[in-house]
Amino acid sequence: MNGVTIMIISLAVLLLAYILYGRWIAKKWGVDPKRKTPAYEQRDGVDYEPAHKSIVFGHQFASIAGAGPINGPVQAAIFGWVPVLLWVLIGGVFFGAVQDFSAMYASVRNKGRSVGYIIEKYIGKTGKKMFLLFCWLFYILVVAAFADIVAGTFMGFTVTDGVKSANITANGAVATTSIMFIVFAVVLGLILKYKKMPTAVNTVIAVVMLVSSIVIGLKFPMFLSLDIWHVLVFVYIFIASIMPVWILLQPRDYLNSYLLVAMIVAAVVGVFVANPQVRIPAFVGFEVDGNYLFPILFVTIACGAVSGFHSLVSSGTASKQIKNEKDMLPVSFGAMLLESMLAVVALIAVASFASGEAAAQGWNTPAQVFAGAVSGFLTTLGLPENIVYTLITLSISAFAMTSLDSVARVGRLSFQELFLDDSITDENMGKIRKVLTNKYFATVITLVLAYGLTLVGYKNIWALFGASNQLLSVFAFLACSVFLKRSKKVRWFMYIPLGAMLAVTFTALGMTIYNKASALITSASADIFGDTLQLVFATLIIILGVCVVVEGFRKLFCKETEKA
After folding, report:
1. Among candidates 300, 296, 269, which has minimal Cα distance to 285?
2. Residue 308 belongs to what domain range?
3. Using one digit for the tens of pLDDT, what is the confidence trace for 153-204?
4. Out of 64-73, 302-311, 395-404, which region has the weakest mean confidence (pLDDT)?
5. Residue 534 lies in a domain
6. Is residue 62 part of a domain?
7. SS3 for 350-383, per residue?
């Protein structure tokens, strides 16, 4: 098997899925282009703000992708390329795209409110409170992990025995370019807000800004330590999560979308030109180095196939910016399929290396393997490998950075929503409740806890993050299924992914609890802090998960005729 064959099969499957399956669902659910969306009905200039579908698509895609569709397939390739490819395509079409679209549809039909609100309305207040608590804990894990990843990408020095040595030019260039992205994003936000120009003109301006950022980054790399970048990244997260979406989040995602799509196109072109041979086995086995195909494969490949976090972006930020209901399909369903395409490219990249070849070149992380392989593909076109490698690394960093924007914002919104009560007006709200629902307080307490976990390192919490992320998809499928039941909409195709992800996540969390408890009891070399932290989080998360699922199943399968 070669890379071109895998690519052609994947492109055909994903394109047909959008045209046939996606449009069929949109028709069955009655997407109405004439219906007024929450972006207009609830318009506040902060979270609710109508935007062109290309801008919302850029936000959705950049936010949901992160580094997940690259990390997951690269790590899961230990089982062989066939199970990875099958799950990316099947999961992306019938699980991930359906979840993202249903979450956005349900949110837009419920005033742009989050999945938490939908759970409260259709499952109950107790279920909502438990869900929001779970989400807030999950957001802390995500911010901590991705902030550490971003800071590591920006770190400008190699460190040997605690002593700084050589500069890392690629990281320094990525850091400068990312800062210029932010500066240009604010400028672009002002232009889009106050200068009503044709979309083509806005596109030209965005591309010029993007190229300028890259040129400046390559010319003036910035070299700072990891500790400094940790602080700067969290300062940025705080500002980004409280600013109006139009001034930073929308335009920065708009800029990034061009870079990210360009990276995917370049990678696809590189595959077709280089036509790399698959050099890893098709299937290794159901158990590899103590890792079992079920459930590890389905937890490891999250964003490339299905990820619960996507539902929070679809219902937490993107749904508040949808200008027309017909934009929901390309923004949610389409963005997920594009992410699956990125996961396929990542699979081809890792499959092109023979055993030990990537490590021999110093590429030890999934991002480095991906960037090294793609840059190698593109050298066949005569492009300089060092520049291409830097640009690919920049793109991966942009994925993670944009995810941080969205995670911090929806984390802040979830914490506020945890203490909101529709029966209590702002005037009658007590002092403590006012503090807890204040956006500045909610942001600070979330980021302070996340910063503490960041210092521990993302590797210590990544496994728990993966299982928690997939449990979110169970909640999303469950909440949307109940909503569709009340709305008298077809929903039978939601039950298969709901049941499958329920089995995957509870099995994975159960294994985590067993493994961590066993390590603490029997192993003298156990990481007391890290293992205890994961054991506590896993136990709390599975308890919250069981409670929400039980409440949801009661509503889903009881006899009710109430219409939404």
Report:
1. 296
2. 3-17+40-114+152-448
3. 788 777 666 666 667 777 788 888 888 888 888 888 888 788 777 778 877 8
4. 395-404
5. no
6. yes
7. HHCCCCCHHHHCCCCCHHHHHHHHHHHHHHHHCC
